[in-house]
Amino acid sequence: MFYYEGQFYEGNSISLNINDSTWLYGATVFTTMRVYKQSLNHPLTNWQKHCDRLLKSIEELNWTFPDWQLIKQEVEQLLIYFPVIRITVFPDGRELIIGRQLPTNLFQKQQEGIKGLVCLNPSIQRSIPEHKTGNYLAPWLALQQAQKQGYQEAILTNIEHNWLETSTGNLWGYKQGIWFTPNLAQGILPGIARQTIIDKAQFPIEINQWTPDFINDLEAIAYSNSVIEIIPFHKIINGEKVIDYDHNHPAYKALKGIFD
């Protein structure tokens, strides 16, 4: 079930004009949020931050504003059935509101960690990274390449071999008592979960560039997004180099505690 242009639908399809910029160019902006305890008012749901993300993009792209009250009403109907809601806004103000369940193996990944593959092709980077647009081809390609080789996530890089973000979230690395996350100025998505961690942390955080030298001696690495919260990496393949990490590193307690 979903909402599109103010109408409720059951099924998995909508009708679009063949010249619609949505599918011709990926011309949408969207945000995906996890709704805690079926409440938009829950502090971890970050309802206002998700709305602000959409508003900022629509303003800067000079698109038509949607009916915000309608969007909220439709979200409130779907959150009864789904813990994850995706809000998509089209250039002309149309809205598409869909819901989904949490990943079935999320708890296992949070506890045991995952394997990641570093994407060594610097041309595979997010389009207009300051906005969450429907053109997600580059991260999708990176993730597909990783999954075909048996890994659960891909790590995007730039021409200087700096690590930027994962295909679906923001990176976190720990060493010498400090949690680090890459600088947005390198061209990465300003994730809402990332900002939540920065705002709520009661432990040292530094924002920096993840150069090869910096990455070399990290003790623990994880990634975050609004749906999965925090997932550690227990192994990362970087070219010919295989790096193992302790997914039970004690530093994760503070990072995961943000979402308790």
Automatic annotation (TrEMBL):
GO terms for cellular component: cytosol. InterPro entries: Aminotrans_IV, Aminotransferase-like, BCAT-like_C, BCAT-like_N, Class-IV_PLP-Dep_Aminotrnsfr. GO terms for molecular function: transaminase activity. It comes from the Bacteria. Pfam families: Aminotran_4. Keywords: Aminotransferase, Transferase. GO terms for biological process: carboxylic acid biosynthetic process. PANTHER family: AMINO-ACID AMINOTRANSFERASE, AMINODEOXYCHORISMATE LYASE. Belongs to the class-IV pyridoxal-phosphate-dependent aminotransferase family. This is Aminotransferase class IV.
